[in-house]
Design brief:
The protein has 14 helices and eight strands. By secondary structure, it is mainly alpha-helical. The strands form three sheets. It has a three-stranded antiparallel sheet, with helices on one face. A three-stranded mixed sheet has the order 6-7-8, with helices on one face. A two-stranded antiparallel sheet has the order 4-5. The radius of gyration is 57 Å and the shape is flat.
Length: 517
């Protein structure tokens, strides 16, 4: 055989042997796999049977639980139904009882109605009998009196009218007197409380200021060569500077407090600096003027902040600051205005009015005294026009213009401002008055009352705030005394000038004297 055939036959034998071996091996593997599968199947069947038993047990437990809950719920519902049936039965019994009660009451009401109808019939019969008797009596009275019933009725009505009118007049007088007494009492209470709750510093102003210097040698430097320094200072400030023999003092005289303050501050700075000549004087005076204007604006702003007044026009605020350097009858105008503002606020609060508007009007009521120019108008009217120009509210403007009765009051805060202005300015000690003028005013007051017939004596007391008039009882009756008090007060108001108000009290008394021996 050829060699290649030998190789082929040998390779085939080897291949067949390998195939046979693989078949034998795969058969053994198959048996093993089948055996393992059988084992897993049996195990799975056993596990499934156990799970089945467990699930059946759980299902039974769940069923029993649901059955128990259902039975419990059914029992609860049955219990509620039984309770509801019991309540219904109770209500039914109650309704039956009420129905029986209503039926019984209906019977009673019916019986009462029948009884009332019977009584009404009897009363109607009695009324008819009474009417017949009344007509007979009226006929008999008309026959006896000779007057018809209508005429008698009219006469009776007139008599009753007269009595009622007299009683009504007496009652009205009593009510009026009581109302006046209560109103006067309440007004005094409010005014007194207002005055007691406000305390303000009082500053006395005059027309001169005193500038103190360390030694009299400085006077010569202030006067300057041939008086040129003092003339330059007077020309720049508009203030008269008096250098006399008064030791260590120079007097600044002028009616304008702002100018006096500028002159005082300028003189102080010149003396402190030591350079005193006309050019330097003019420079310092201009600088001081600017400082004073700034201080005026700051004082106005600080005053508004202290009083709680907001949104005030800058021009009005500047005028409020200028009040610091003005006085009225010796009373500092800014202090007076602040006091009036506080008084107005307290009084407005007591009366239930607008506190902020009252305080604003009280602060601005005298701004007509510090204008930049001097028009020929009363200060109240000028202040009102300035407030209107600065867009103040109408009630505030009216209060400013009416606080001296130049215009009619048309707001509730106007009389408050007028009263508080009088409280601040008219009380003793608030304003300075020349003694001669004061005494003359009191004498004129007493002389005016003495000019009336029947007046015996007159006394002006309480610094001229009250006038007591003693009349002769045999010449003046009580009614005449009332009329005399009104006439005197009207004449004082029309003919005399005085601060605040004057109370006129007319006294009439009768004395009977007996002597036991």
């Amino acid at each position: 055989m050829p060699d290649y055939l030998i190789y082929v036959v040998g390779g085939g034998a080897l291949l067949v042997g390998a195939l046979v071996g693989m078949l034998i091996s795969s058969g053994m593997m198959r048996k093993k796999v089948l055996r393992q599968a059988d084992e897993k199947l049996k195990k799975a069947e056993a596990d499934g049977e156990a799970i089945k038993k467990e699930k059946m047990l759980q299902a039974k437990e769940k069923f029993l639980q649901l059955k128990s809950e259902h039975e419990k719920e059914v029992n609860e519902k049955n219990k509620n139904i039984n309770q509801a049936e019991s309540r219904i039965k109770q209500k039914e019994q109650s309704l039956n009882q009420k129905l029986e009660e209503y039926q019984r009451r209906d019977k009673d009401v019916e019986n009462q109605r029948r009884s009332l109808e019977h009584q009404l019939e009897l009363a109607a019969k009695k009324q008819e009998d009474l009417d017949k008797m009344h007509r007979k009596q009226v006929e008999q009275l008309e026959t006896v009196a000779g007057m018809s019933a209508d005429a008698a009725r009219a006469q009776l009505v007139e008599s009753l009218k007269g009595e009622a009118r007299t009683e009504a007049m007496a009652f009205v007088k009593e009510v009026m007197d009581e109302a006046k007494m209560n109103a006067n009492k309440e007004a005094k209470k409010i005014v007194i409380q207002t005055i007691q709750r406000v305390a303000t510093e009082h500053a006395v102003e005059n027309s001169v200021s005193v500038f103190h210097i360390e030694n009299d040698e400085m006077k010569g430097r202030i006067i300057g060569r041939e008086g040129r320094n003092i003339r330059a200072l007077e020309a720049a400030t508009g203030i008269e500077i008096i250098v006399d023999d008064t030791p260590e003092a120079i007097i600044l005289s002028g009616f304008d407090p702002v100018r006096r303050e500028i002159a005082r501050l300028a003189l102080h700075q010149l003396v402190t600096d030591g350079r005193i000549h006309p050019a330097r004087i003019e420079e310092v005076v201009e600088k001081i003027k600017k400082q004073v204007e700034e201080e005026i604006a700051e004082v106005g702003k600080r005053t508004c902040i202290d009083l709680g007044i907001h949104n005030l026009h800058p021009e009005l605020m500047r005028m409020v600051g200028r009040m610091k350097y003005r006085s009225s009858y010796g009373q500092n105008l800014l202090q007076h205005s602040r006091e009036v503002a506080n008084l107005c606020a307290i009084m407005a609060a007591e009366l239930g009015l607008n506190v902020k508007a009252a305080k604003r009007a009280g602060l601005l009521h005298d701004i007509g005294k510090v204008p930049d120019d001097e028009p020929e108008l009363p200060h109240a009217i000028l202040g009102m026009k300035l407030a209107e120009k600065c867009k103040e509210k109408p009630d505030v403007c009216n209060a400013i213009g009416a606080h001296h009765d130049e215009i009619e009051m048309n707001s509730m805060i106007s009389p408050i401002v007028q009263v508080c202005d009088a409280i601040s300015g008219a009380r003793p000690g608030a304003r300075r008055e020349i003694v001669e003028q004061y005494i003359k005013r009191l004498k004129d007051l007493e002389a005016l009352a003495l000019s009336y017939p029947g007046v015996d004596k007159t006394y002006a007391i309480q610094a001229g705030r009250e006038l007591r008039v003693i009349v002769a009882s045999e010449k003046v009756t009580d009614k005449d005394a009332e009329k005399l008090a009104i006439d005197i007060s009207t004449r004082i108001q029309n003919e005399m000038t005085y601060p605040g108000q004057v109370k006129v009290t007319v006294i009439r008394e009768t004395r009977a004297v007996g002597i036991a021996k």
